[in-house]
Structures are given as structure tokens and as C-alpha cells.
Amino acid sequence: MTFYCKNFEIGTDQCTKLHSECIPGRPGCVLEGRMALSEELQARIDKLEEERLARVQARGEEE
Ligand code: SF4
């Protein structure tokens, strides 16, 4: 199966909607909750969430 997303920027593999790496199914993606995720994709999404939480925590400690 192939999939085309209008938010995918060819050449950079970036998502123009989320201004970040295209990881189908990630939070904020048009496919969020609409597809079954492979273990690999889920692991990438979990890593993104960990990084986001670390950034939030770091900002909180700066204030
Ligand atoms: S992350 Fe989702 S919305 Fe963004 S380009 Fe990829 S498939 Fe499209």
C-alpha cells in the first residue's frame, strides 16, 4: 500500500504541518488514531514523546 500526504515535503522528509520529521501516526499527524502502528513506528513516537517531556522538564527547571 502506498500513501501520499499533502503535508510531506519531498526532499527533506519533513512534515509541514508539524514542522518536524514525518513520522506517520505521531501526535498531531492527520493519521493519528486512524492506523495500526508497527512496533518500529511506535518506538519512534515513544522516543519523540520522551524527548518532548525532557524539553518541558528542562524549561521548568530553568524558570
Ligand atoms: S507526520 Fe503525518 S501529517 Fe505530517 S507529513 Fe507525515 S503523514 Fe503527513
Biggest sheet strand order reads 1-2-3
* C-alpha Rg (nearest Å): 14 Å
The helicity comes to: 25-40%
Number of strands: 3
Name every ligand kind in the structure: iron/sulfur cluster
Structural class: alpha+beta
Strand content: 5-15%
Structural domain count: 1
How would a crystallographer describe the biggest sheet? 3 strands, antiparallel
Query: Looking at the structure, what is the overall shape?
Result: globular
Compressed to H and E, one letter per element, the order equals EEEH
Number of helices, where a helix is a run of at least 4 consecutive DSSP H or I residues: 1
Gap from first CA to last CA: 47 Å
Uncertain ranges: none
> For the residues shown, what is the average pLDDT?
90
Secondary structure layout plus pairing:
Layout: E1 8-9, E2 14-15, E3 20-21, H1 39-62
Antiparallel strand pairs: 1-2, 2-3
The site of iron/sulfur cluster has 13 residues, from loops.
Task: For this entry, give a set of tags.
single chain, 63 residues, alpha+beta, three-stranded antiparallel sheet, 3 strands, 38% helix, 10% strand, globular, binds iron/sulfur cluster
Description:
By secondary structure, this protein is an alpha+beta fold. It has one domain. The chain is built from one helix and three strands. It has one helix at residues 39-62, and strands at 8-9, 14-15, 20-21. A three-stranded antiparallel β-sheet has the order 1-2-3, with no helix packed on it. β2 (14-15) and β3 form a beta hairpin. The chain is globular. The N and C termini lie far apart (47 Å). The site of iron/sulfur cluster has 13 residues, from loops.
